[in-house]
Amino acid sequence: MPHIVEIDSLSLPELDVYARLTQAQLRNRLEPEKGIFIAESPKVIERALEAGCQPLSFLMERRHITDQAAALLARCDPEISVYTGESSLLEELTGFQLTRGVLCAMRRPHLPSFESLCAGARRVAVLENIVDSTNVGAIFRSAAALHVDAVLVTPSCCDPLCRRAIRVSMGTVFQVPWTTIGQKAADWPQPGLAWLNALGFKTAALALSDRSVSIDDPQLMAEEKLAIILGTEGDGLSPHTIADCDYTVKIPMSHQVDSLNVAAASAVAFWQLRAR
């Protein structure tokens, strides 16, 4: 039986992870082994558990303990703490309505090196400085659905384990292998692109330029190993990235539309450029 804690004070220090710690504090860059992320909704939490993530505590409406969270709790340490209360109190604590009624604080997993992650991969996506968590989550969902072997994020990219990115991805951040490429901003685009080339990848920047080839270019589609580089909202990929990539790639448009949202563009690119 889990340790049920009825919330009678919003100031409990054990609730800090759900309401009062910033994303940077949760991530705990100085001591990554102590980092925490928040998973929201039973389906997302289930996928995190299946990926081997360690749960630390739960926050949920009281009715869910014996309802939609019962199977989750049965998979966890029987002494795990479950903080509970009425939905209005939990909304006051977190600042948002729990649309699926269940949150779980979990230990951040250890990230592998990008070299080990790319071993055996044929298609990888690289997210260059994408800052919108919704876009990051949507890209991971497309990557999971459309045959991407791994995702690499640059050091300045939004954290894929922030709560909103996890939720938008529907937990696919726990299904698609991912890691960072480089440890500091100066590692990208160089030497990051050179590292990918050394691993046998051709690099394809999604961008409009005079030298862009169509996304259905036969030579591009036939590459054995391809890294698909996606840029941040608004500015897109940096000029240095575009200049140093093996290909610059465009998605042909109609009705004078010049570009797609990065998440939509990623889905088109992942499908068209999937390994044959």
Automatic annotation (TrEMBL):
Sorted UniProt keywords: Methyltransferase, Transferase
GO biological process, one term: methylation
Record's keyword annotation contains Ribonucleoprotein: no
Classification via InterPro entries: Alpha/beta_knot_MTases, Ribosomal_eL30-like_sf, rRNA_Methyltransferase, SpoU_MeTrfase, tRNA_m1G_MTases_N
Keyword Methyltransferase set for record: yes
One MF annotation (Gene Ontology) recorded for this entry: RNA methyltransferase activity
Top-rank taxon: Bacteria
Ranges where the tRNA/rRNA methyltransferase SpoU type domain occurs: 124-270
Pfam families, A to Z: SpoU_methylase
PANTHER family: RRNA METHYLASE, RRNA METHYLTRANSFERASE 3
Protein's recorded name: rRNA methyltransferase
Organism of derivation: Faecalibacterium gallinarum
